Each structure stands twice: as C-alpha cells, then as structure tokens.
Inverse folding.
C-alpha cells in the first residue's frame, strides 16, 4: 500500500492506494464517484478528469504518477448551488439523458472553453472526440457548448 498527498477539487488530501492502481479506482474508492468507470481502456471518456488543468482519462494514469498534482473532477468546477456556466448550459439545452457520460463531457467542454472561449463547431467536436455518448447523438451536447460560449461572451460585455 502506498500513500500520497494530492489536491482534489482544490483541497489537499492524503490517499492510500495500491502501487499498480489507476487514478480512476483511487478516486472512486475515496468517494469521488462522479468519476465514472466506463471502458477502463481510455476509449469512452467517462472517467475524464483535469490533471493539472489538462483533460486525461483517469483509467490510463497510475495514481503513483500523480502524487503532488492537482486533480479536478466535475464537482470541482461547480455544484448544484453554484454551477459553472458549462454545467448550466448542459441542463438548459437538455444535453443530458442517462448522465453517465456527462461528467467527462462537461470537463472536456470546460477545458475547451477555458482555452478557447469562442470555438466553432469543428473545434467543439474535436474537443469532445474522446468522449462517447450512447443517448444524445451529440447534437444537444454541441448546442450546450455553443450556448456556454455565448454566455461567456455576453458576460465579458459591459
């Protein structure tokens, strides 16, 4: 058993984990169940988190390799009482159905809008490439990202 300190959703935490454990399992074993366990092969994006601000599939990362790093799950960007703009847009645009892919989709979109607040449709599709959804057909997800981008633009205007 190994132990490490890292920052998760802005809070320093000490976690115990097996030497060969992937970050996905360490997070879920410690109550971060918003990180979904999908394919465990890095193909679906359900387990996506931000690692030092960059989107990564946590099923492909050994926990031992991220000691001291900053991890953000979907709960780290906003919550029910203070949602991030992208979270509001997903709800307002009906971009959630079963909800399984939603945390990864939201985080991928959040990272895109942070780096590119006015993406075109092809840039949105590229940012979401690693995230699979079996329910929505992606139309409403893309609309939600466009809606959030518009809201970000409107917020910057006086």
């Amino acid at each position: 058993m190994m132990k490490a300190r890292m920052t998760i959703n802005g809070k320093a935490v000490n976690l115990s984990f097996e030497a060969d454990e992937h970050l996905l399992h360490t997070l879920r074993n410690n109550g971060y169940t918003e990180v979904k366990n999908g394919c465990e092969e890095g193909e679906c994006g359900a387990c996506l988190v931000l690692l030092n601000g960059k989107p990564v599939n946590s099923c492909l990362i050994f926990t031992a390799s991220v000691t001291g790093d900053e991890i953000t799950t979907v709960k780290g960007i906003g919550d029910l009482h203070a949602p991030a703009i992208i979270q509001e847009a997903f709800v307002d645009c009906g971009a959630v159905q079963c909800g399984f892919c939603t945390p990864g989709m939201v985080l991928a979109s959040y990272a895109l809008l942070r780096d590119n607040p006015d993406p075109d449709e092809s840039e949105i599709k590229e940012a979401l490439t690693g995230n699979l959804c079996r329910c929505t057909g992606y139309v409403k997800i893309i609309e939600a990202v466009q809606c959030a981008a518009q809201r970000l633009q409107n917020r910057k205007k006086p």
In short: The chain is about 35% helix and 15% strand. Residues 27 and 33 are 7 Å apart (CA to CA). The beta strands are 2-8, 11-17, 48-51, 54-57, 70-72. Residues 139-156 form the longest helix (18 residues).
